[in-house]
Design a protein that fits this description.
Helices cover 46% and strands 24% of the residues. A 5-stranded parallel β-sheet has the order 3-2-1-4-5, sandwiched between helices. The longest helix is centred in the middle third of the chain and has 17 residues.
Length: 128
């Protein structure tokens, strides 16, 4: 791993995504990293995404981590994370092994599985 690492984290409000964020914070502290947190939300759920991001912002400020946040309207979190990682040249994507969308994951394949198979950078899937 390198200094000034760029870490992308997908957060959806689930415990798994919180554990992924905590792992990303640990890595960022060790490697002087920058964390960007993305929350993908569906139409009509922007308020929920804003609440999630406010909690994340508070935690990142508490931990004194260089960070940025982004809420993206969409229905495909894995594509949003993979595309962002590629376009913004991230070194690492960190995601939880499960999220809130278990029914959708059954039909579409899990977000973490899709990210692992499509990302061009390293991916860390966090299980607890």
């Amino acid at each position: 791993m390198k200094e000034n690492m760029k870490i992308l984290v997908g957060v959806d409000g689930s415990d798994y995504s919180t554990w992924a964020l905590m792992e990303a914070i640990s890595i960022a502290k060790k490697f002087s990293g920058h964390i960007k947190v993305i929350t993908v939300y569906r139409r009509g759920n922007k308020d929920e995404a804003t609440k999630i991001q406010m909690k994340v912002k508070h935690l990142l400020e508490e931990e004194n981590i260089d960070s940025s946040l982004s809420a993206i309207l969409g229905s495909n979190p894995s594509r949003a994370l993979v595309d962002t990682a590629e376009h913004e040249k991230f070194d690492l994507i960190v995601v939880g092994s499960r999220g809130l969308g278990r029914a959708a994951a059954f039909l579409l394949g899990s977000v973490s599985k899709n990210i692992v198979s499509k990302a061009s950078c390293d991916v860390l899937v966090v299980k607890k």
